[in-house]
Specification:
Mean pLDDT: 94
Helix content: 25-40%
Order of helices and strands: EHHHEEHEHEHEHEHEHEHEH
Low-confidence stretches: none
CATH class: Alpha Beta
CATH architecture: Alpha-Beta Barrel
Strand order of the largest sheet: 1-10-9-8-7-6-4
Structural class: alpha/beta
Distance between the termini: 23 Å
Number of helices: 11
CATH topology: TIM Barrel
Radius of gyration: 19 Å
Oligomer: single chain
Number of strands: 10
Largest sheet: 7 strands, parallel
Length: about 325
């Protein structure tokens, strides 16, 4: 699975990590972005501060004891814009609400054919890998969700739009692989809210990974995979990530399929400051172990942690790690 020194139940994260610490710790990145927008610092200085904060959140994930981390997506404006801005054919427009959260993103608009220009996340991955003593996985927002959360003013055909996004992002995946990334996480929250689109989603994932030798995790969240899970087992991916907080039906769905892949088990609520108890998490894990072997199980938050205060996110991760160690008999 991973070279973590653990034989089963690996702890990980889904993607982003809070950028801004609680007062009195200074909001270094937020202040730097404002100073850059005001013309008071250079792009080089802003990037230096982005590196600084990225190194901080990498250290926090490692200090929490997480087995497999990400770079925290500190450089990402939101879940959609960062990659879309780097692709040809998109323009970035006004704010749109990100699902039913209290966060917003700048909505990309397809003005021309979507195409790959140059790698967007490769330098981020390399920086994270160099600054972590535990494995790091690369993260992208998947082609279906990227297209679904964007506006099409060029194709007038959603399937063609999504497939062109997938074709462009495939080049990003190839570049990550060539840079040393062995594992890729593909975030696809939109599919659980638009299940009728599964044939388009399936084609987009197949296009994204066509001919690329990389271990892939497909992460869904903000809902359950009812009507989808059995089909997802046929996708060219190694791990399926499910949200067991907002998608309680996912527990029952596991009983109905022969689950042949690894499972990303999102059982820590990344949108609620309340800490999960050992009893809660142990009960949830035991329910899943009836259908998924422990050496194919990842324990993680149900979605990205950026909805939480930074100190709470760290405490949630540490609590998750401690509980999993306890369940495994480590303490």
């Amino acid at each position: 699975m991973w070279n973590t020194g653990e034989e089963n139940m690996i702890t990980t994260v889904v993607g982003n990590y809070p950028k801004i610490p609680n007062f009195p710790r200074p909001a270094v990145l937020k202040n730097a972005i404002q100073r850059f927008d005001d013309g008071k610092i250079s792009i080089g200085e802003l990037k230096r501060i982005e590196d600084q904060v990225t190194a901080e959140v990498i250290k926090e994930q490692v200090d929490a004891g997480v087995d497999v981390i990400t770079d925290g997506q500190i450089r990402w404006d939101d879940e959609v814009t960062y990659l879309a801005r780097g692709l040809g054919g998109f323009e970035i427009n006004g704010l749109a609400r990100f699902f039913d959260t209290n966060t917003y993103y700048r909505r990309p608009i397809a003005k021309n054919k979507i195409k790959f220009n140059e790698p967007v996340t490769v330098k981020d991955y390399i920086f994270a890998a160099k600054n972590s003593n535990v494995p790091v996985k690369a993260v992208i927002t998947g082609p279906y969700s990227t297209a679904k959360l964007s506006k099409d003013e060029h194709y007038n055909n959603f399937e063609k739009f999504a497939l062109d996004v997938a074709h462009a992002l495939r080049e990003e995946v190839v570049a990550l692989k060539n840079a040393g990334a062995s594992h890729l996480q593909i975030n696809e929250p939109s599919i659980v809210r638009n299940k009728k689109d599964y044939p388009i989603f399936e084609s987009a994932i197949n296009e994204l990974l066509d001919g690329v030798d990389i271990k892939a995790t497909l992460c869904t969240y903000f809902g359950d995979a009812e009507g989808l899970l059995d089909k997802m087992l046929d996708l060219p991916i190694d791990t399926i990530g499910l949200d067991f907080v907002m998608g309680k039906k996912n527990f029952a769905l596991l009983k109905k399929v022969d689950f042949t892949k690894s499972l990303g088990m999102g059982i820590v609520d990344a949108r609620n400051t309340r800490l999960e108890s050992k009893v809660e998490l142990q009960k949830d894990i035991e329910r899943v172990l009836e259908f998924v072997k422990s050496d194919k199980l990842f324990i993680n938050p149900n979605c990205g942690l950026d909805f939480l205060p930074r100190e709470i996110a760290f405490t949630k991760l540490k609590n998750m790690v401690d509980i999993v160690k306890s369940i495994k008999g480590g303490v």
